[in-house]
Amino acid sequence: MIAKLNLIALLSLLCFTACQGQQKTKDVKNETPSTNPLLCDIETGMCEMPSNETKDVKNETPSTNPLLCDIETGMCEMPSNETKDSTSEVVQTTDKKVKLVYFTDPICSSCWGIEPQLRKLKLEYGDYIDIEYRMGGLLPDWNYNSGGISKPSDVAHHWDEVSVHYDMPIDGDVWLEDPLNSSYPPSIAFKAAQLQGEEMANLFMREIREMVFLKKVNIAKWEHLATAAKNVGLNVEQLKTDFEGKAKTLFEEDLKMSRDFGVRGFPTIFFIDSAGNKETVYGSRAYSIYETAILKINSSITKIEYDKNWETLFSKYNSLTAKEFSALSGTPRIESENLLNELFDKGILERLTTKNGSIWTLVN
Q1: Do 350 and 363 form a contact (C-beta atoms < 8 A)?
Q2: Alpha carbon of 313 to those of 169, 232, 250: distances in Å?
Q3: Is 167 left (phi over 0), alpha (psi -120 to 50) or beta?
Q4: How far is it, in rounded angstroms, from Cα 122 to Cα 130?
Q5: Is 192 helix (H, G, I), strand (E, B) or coil?
Q6: What count of other Cβ atoms lies within 10 Å of the Cβ of residue 272?
Q7: I want to staple 152 with a disulfide (CB 3.0 to 4.6 A). Which of 5, 65, 145, 179 is the partner?
Q8: How many degrees, rounded to 5, is the angle at CA 231 between CA 225 and CA 234?
Q9: 70: which strand partners?
Q10: In CATH, which of 1.20.120.450, 2.40.128.710, 3.40.80.10, 1.10.10.10 is domain 310-362?
Q11: For residue 262, is pLDDT > 70?
Q12: Could you report the per-residue pLDDT of 193-248, keeping only the tens digit for each?
C-alpha cells in the first residue's frame, strides 16, 4: 500500500500541466515541484497558483507553484497573498437572490470535473442564481519553470488520471501532440465572447473545453478559437477585434479581481447576496456542498423541479457526458451510459469517444 502511494506521489510530480494533482501525503512537501503551475492535486481538487507562504505546504500546495492542483480538494491554487476580503465591495447588484462569482480557467481540469454539479445547479436553482464567470490566469507561459519538470509532455499521463478520478473524459495526449503554451489566449477570447452576451460566452467556454479535453485541440491558437466561436454562433470578426483590444483589459481586470478576492486557485466559487453576505467553496466538491452554500445565503430559495428525460436534458444542454447525464437525470451511472449508447445506435445521438470516455450530442 505504501509503495502504491509513493508511486502516485511520483506520478503527481511528473504530471504538472494538469489542474489536479495526486494525493495529499506527508511526502508532498518534498516531492511536489515548487515551480510547476499545472500540477493539480486530486485529493484537494484544486489547481494552485504560487504562494508567498511556505508554512504547512505539505497539506496545502507548493509555495511557488501556480498550477499545483490537489485532487483531494479539487482545486488548482493561486498565490495566497494576504489581501483584504473585498467581495462585498466588488459584487454587483443582481435581480437573482444569489450571485455565484466563479473563478476558473479554460484548461483547469478540476473545473471540467465540476461541470455536472454546475449544470445541475442551473437546472434546480437557475431562477435564483446568477453565475458570473471570471478568468484566473492559470498558465501565463512556460518561462516560470526552473525546476526539474520543464516540458508540457510531463503532464499528459496526469490528465489521464484526472479523467478517471472525476469520471469525465479527458485525453492528456494534447500535451504530447500539440501542447498549449499558455491559458491566456482562450481566457482573453472568453472575455471577448462575453461582450456578445453571457449565454453565448458560456457556450463558447464549453466548446473550447471540449476541444482541449476531448479533441486534443490547442485552444491557445487563434485558428481553433475562431472555429469554436463559429460553432456556437459568435460573430468571429467582432470576436477577433475584441480579442486584440478591449478583451485584454477585461482579462486584466479579472486577474486583479481574483487578487482582490484572495483567490488562490481554481475552481473557487463565492456565493454572495446583495448585502454582501457570502459563502465560499474551494475546489471540486460534491453537489450537496454547492447546494448548501446557496441555501446558507438564502434559506427561502426552493428547488425547481425539472423533467429528467433525455429529450429535455439534451434540449437544455447540447452535449452530455455519461457522468453529467447521470447527475442530471438521476439515472445510475452504468444505466446512463447504456441509454446514451442505445440512442447513438438509433441515430438520435452522435458520440465522440476518447481513450478515457465519451461525450454525446444531439444529431442536428
Answers
A1: yes
A2: 19, 18, 33
A3: left
A4: 9
A5: helix
A6: 24
A7: 179
A8: 75
A9: 46, 75
A10: 1.10.10.10
A11: yes
A12: 999 999 999 999 999 999 999 999 999 999 999 999 999 999 999 999 999 999 99
